[in-house]
Amino acid sequence: MWRIDCGPNMVSLNSTGINIIAYDWDEDNKAGVVLRGADNMIVYGSDGKKRLYTIGDMSVNTRDTFNPTNGAQYAWTHTGAEYLIYMDGETGALYQATDYPLRRLEYASTLSAEWGGHGYGHNSSKYFFGAPFLDGRKASLFMARGIYGSHKMIAMDLAPNTHEWVERWRWNCMDSSSPWYGQGYHNFCIADVDEDGRDEIVYGSMVIDDNGHGLHTTGYGHGDAQHVGDFNPYRPGLESFGCLEDEPTWGCDYRDATTGEVFYKFTSSDDDGRCLMDNFLIDYPGCQGKSNNMGEWMSSVRNEVLSGVSNISVDNTNNTTYNHHLNFRVYWDGDLCSEIFDSGGSGGGAGTITKPGMPTGGRMANLEGDTNNDSKNNPCFQGDIIGDWREEVIMRYNNNLRVYTTGISTDHSLPSLWFDHQYRQAMVWQMMAYNQPPHPSFFVGELEGITQAPPPLTNRGRTDTPGSSVREASSAEASPPTTEPPSFPVAKAQRAP
After folding, report:
1. CA atoms within 13 A of residue 464's CA, in its CB half-sphere
2. How far is CA 345 from CA 112, 289, 393, 437, in A?
3. Beta-bridge mates of residue 83
4. Residue 170 near residue 107, CB atoms below 8 Å
5. Helix (H, G, I), strand (E, B) or coil at 258
6. Of the four, 5, 201, 405, 490, which is 20 to 30 A from 461 by CA?
């Protein structure tokens, strides 16, 4: 259809700063495409050779600004112009190319002063895009920049007749003393955490409301992986489970996604780099969660470690060697529990589907090809492509793509996961930075007797909510929640009659 040559001015360590999303913002039943661009980019047509157009100044090459003593590990483009590019998804034709609204420098004269950290572009080169329904009716464009220190966010709405973006709100945090400072992760997600029909931005250890105000922050800081879903079916609302990299809050936390109330906090002695939570085990109510440094799995219902579940067998290994498998949850077989996608090794290589708790190791499928992002072991894409509620996995295979699907029958009839608004949003943001798996907004499980998905959202009865103004985060927006878990009445699930 078309292709993009990013040119010499989009250098990013392991490509986590090169992000592109597609969504139908103008509601013509076809997706448009949005990405960040730089000088010296070329967009080619369907034959892969004919130039459709170029971006910016074609003579610019900023690679000579890199500090050679840092090595390739610290190679991020950190000078030069940046653009917001909006394209026709079908043809690649350019709708609009404007200055990038989240500027690299606007409050200070150096990158280290603006973003914290060092000045080689690491902190300033974390970009995120999404398509949240901030008014409850149609998609906006959301963009964010920064995770370790300063944060800049903007939401914009599209004027469909002109294909121009109109600012809805901004949210910034540049104050290093604020509990909102440095709370971002290497990924983010979009979910209606307060169930008001409008989406929130779950940005690591904090959540930004649909109106551009801070909803809550834990103050726990940066981490690498987070998961949001209805992990406890015995309490209303959504929960969040994430791992933490910042000292002294190393470890992981499990919290109310709306209020930030912390139900469980595990403290580690160093960076806890991976975590995963979902309904993996049919014999335990709710979901099970674990981070790399946790010795045992925890219960999303009891808010405590699961006794006797310290060695969930996966690939004939125990948890000591299984930690790198805390990767993507996936619906693969016929029951209502999730399985796990990962590579068969510690980094790269073919993909595997495994089922936790199986006495023989639980490997259900080998997916030929290569995973992405080194130790992250990400597929190219995971989602319910066919529409039977089980999920497909796309893998690189030589110079092609392969789509893998399950061959296992099921007794359960659920609609396509794409009918769930949160899951559909995850199809947009899944590949931002450190790819994370999609979670629907609802829980299903045989033990709990919840075997049907809720009906999909509709626009009937919704109210448009206009947005405005620039928000500077302040400590008055919300207070960091207590780490004490609440009293909880559910000791174990009861099977439905």
Report:
1. 7
2. 37, 22, 18, 19
3. 37, 99
4. no
5. coil
6. 201
Rounded to whole angstroms, how far apart are CA atoms 163 and 115? Answer: 32
pLDDT tens profile 58-88 = 999 999 888 766 666 678 899 999 999 999 9
Please state whether beta strands 41-44 and 3-5 pair in parallel, antiparallel, or not at all (unpaired): antiparallel
466 CB neighbour count, 10 Å cutoff: 10
Q: In what order do the strands lie in the sheet with 51-55?
A: 3-5, 41-44, 51-55
Amino acid at 307: S
The token pair that represents 270 in the structure block: 């160093």
What six digits make up the tokens of 49?
């050779």
- How distant is the alpha carbon of residue 259 from its chain centre? 20
Distance, in Å, from the CA atom of 79 to the CA atom of 74, rounded to the nearest integer, reads: 14
* Alpha-carbon distance values, 403 to 131, 177, 329 (Å): 25, 47, 17
Q: Which of 464, 388, 467, 453 is nearest to 421 (CA)?
A: 453
The span from the CA of 369 to the CA of 396, in Å, is: 5
CA-to-CA dists, residue 9 to 58, 146, 421, angstroms: 10, 19, 35
Check if the beta carbon of residue 433 is closer than 8 Å to that of residue 19. Answer: yes
Burial, 11: exposed, middle or buried (Cβ in 10 Å; 0-12, 13-18, 19+)?
A: buried
Dump pLDDT digits (tens) for 252-276: 999 999 999 999 999 999 999 999 9
Q: Tell me the C-alpha distance between 91 and 230, whole Å.
A: 39
Sheet strands side by side (includes 151-159):
127-130, 141-145, 151-159, 164-173, 470-472
**Whose structure tokens read 């979670």?**
439
Written as six digits, the tokens of 370 are 């290569």
Q: What are the distances in angstroms from CA 216 to CA 75, 250, 485?
A: 34, 20, 17
- How far apart CA 111 and CA 22 sit, in angstroms, is 30
